[in-house]
Amino acid sequence: MNLLTTPRNDMCYCPGCSHGMVLERLAAAIGATGRRPEQVCLVSDIGCIGTADRYFECHTFHGLHGRSITYAEGIKRVRPEMTVVVLIGDGGCGIGTAHLVHAARRRAGIKVIVCNNFNFGMTGGQHSPTTPPAGHTSTTPDGAADYPFDICETVRVNGADFVARGSALDPSIGTLIGAALNAPGFALIDVWELCTAYYVPSNKLTPPRLVELSQRLNMPFGVLFDRTCGPKSLRAAEAAPAATPSHLPHDQAPPAESQAATADVVLSWPERTEICVAGSAGQHIRSAAGTIGKLAVAGGLFAAQQDDFPITVRRGHSLSNLIIATTPIEYAGLDRPGLVVLLSRDGLERLGGLAELPADCVVVAASELALPPAPARVLRFDAEPLARAVGRASVALSALAFGLVEKEWIDPAALRGAAHRWAGGEYKDADIRAVDAGTALSRGAVT
Prior knowledge:
Elements: H1 19-33, E1 40-44, E2 59-62, H2 68-78, E3 83-89, H3 90-95, H4 97-105, E4 111-116, E5 119-120, E6 126-127, H5 151-157, E7 162-167, H6 173-182, E8 187-192, H7 199-203, H8 207-216, E9 222-226, H9 236-239, H10 256-261, E10 272-280, H11 285-298, E11 302-308, E12 317-325, E13 339-342, H12 345-351, E14 362-366, E15 377-381, H13 383-390, H14 395-406, H15 412-422, H16 428-440
Parallel strand pairs: 1-2, 1-3, 3-4, 4-8, 7-8, 10-13, 13-14, 14-15
Antiparallel strand pairs: 5-6, 7-9, 10-12, 11-12
Helix pairs in contact: 1-6, 11-14, 14-16, 15-16
């Protein structure tokens, strides 16, 4: 299966840039493993190679400069069965050196492909941590003076499980990428490339001179370290806790002890439900949606949450879109919300009105909130007595629980049971009280 969606010539890279070639070899290597698109997550960094995620048909994540490695480690810890691949440049490795070192030290089960062209190609050809001595760049016109950062040796001495280096122009680079993908634990391959916009013209670098450079710097090509050839050791991915049912492949049943632990609570749910909770900063909007999402996941369902809030603290709107489904969620956008919970004018203004809501949607709104005309069914609740009963920070969760029951998506006893069974953390007792109060609310006036 080919995950690459765009031919090399249609990619955004400069003529002669080897990024497109690396992406072709990566796609071929992934395809050779037989992994399906939903089993792969590509995490891209900032820089020219950071544009690569748009060309792959699989899970993708694009973050901040140098931070792709730590994002990838987080994804791998939550989804240990997934193949997580990082695409990062030499600049990103310099900016994120601490993440690189500690991911190797922890033997995080991610695969890092460094597209190393010895300069910051996207921002004007400035020198990078891997610029060779005497390398001419826009910031070292007379030649770089420092010894280059040896990425491979750095991760090797800090615990990496598989380390390799090669030229993007060498056909064998595909074999090295495949070996990195199949290696257990933390794997890294340092792919030396040609930046035809900046570094090549300034340094007359050619494919044969890449090999000469590797010899001169004593940074050889090939497999430099493979832990499987030496003593075995415990790795982070092997030591990770068992995945919850929603994280398991479709054809893999949850362990027997997990089935026994949840046998007393059964969450019956429609195929897919779309929910929007809207209010103001400080009303714990995101926490309310997150709590219900966690209960759904603990009950064997699938959940996806997207939040919207300004940069200000405790001021302005706060929105949380929550999708709960019985099957994996491949699209996390809200097209047809079935439940909207409104707690404040800030939230209503951010939504931009209610006229576009479907007729079968239920709007749960605080009684004091003036609403525009809406085709949806509107239910009111009195926020003040509810705040006195459960605390002001728990009103959003109670209102959300009330809406779920009114939509008849879940039996109130099942929702209360889920809260008592799976709520946890510092706010466990408060969450239980909020869910109990929400399911006990009598239906208010229908407008």
